[in-house]
Amino acid sequence: MAVTSTAFEETANSRSMSVPLQSAAPRVIIRPLALPVEHGGWGFVIEPAVLALLVVPSWAGLMIGIAAVAAFLARHPLRLAAGDWTRRRRFPRTIVCERLALGYGTLAIAAVAVAVTITDARILWPFAIAAPLALAQFAFDVRNRGHAVAPEIAGAVAAGATAAAIVLAGGRPGTLAATLWLLTVLRSVPAIVFVRAVLGRESRAVAVILHIAAVVIALLLWDQRLAPVAAIVAMSLLLARALIRPKHPEPPRRIGMRELAFGAVTVILIGTAM
After folding, report:
1. Which residue ranges make up each domain of the chain?
2. 19/251 Cα distance (integer angstroms)
3. What is the pTM of this model?
């Protein structure tokens, strides 16, 4: 997403900027490079993993969840380093970003390798399907266009592959894997448009329509016995919050924290009922 925390991310990045390598005693602040300030991004990465682990707990699934978080953490420093590479500039922060991306990436690969060893390579299919979306989002990120609506949606949909992979790692059928992936999309895509609408960047009417569509799809899944009635309740709750107009403008941080809370409620409702 993700949830639009552009102002916070720009502030963090500006704090991490240092003078070129030729300057004396450069100082790099590591925290804003190592931990992205994206409330929605955190939610859309963690929610699919937690949801799937509630439904199909397994050690292999836990490894996939760890890999997903590590990959999300790697994206931020890799994006910053890639931006420096494309401009043919090299700062002290570039070196730090490269090392952070390498460390996170190594952890992600190792966790996936453990999961595959425990199960089999079938669990990689969701990631293969999601890879073009993730790469598209990263391409926008490198060009500093990652907060447009299309790459945010692409990234959120790709993140849902984690839920599908965890289900497969637990030995459950592909139908359940696809259902959980779809439920994460029903949660994330309307939420992205809603948050952007609250910030004045998208139409609130479009956000409401997407939430209504999510309720209808959840109802169809329930009718086909693919999802519990709790999924309808969760999507209806999200629709209700989209219909409420705040009396005063709210800061992005507060909006992001509230969305994390709604995401947690959604995951608990659906995960404990399936």
Report:
1. 6-273
2. 31
3. 0.86
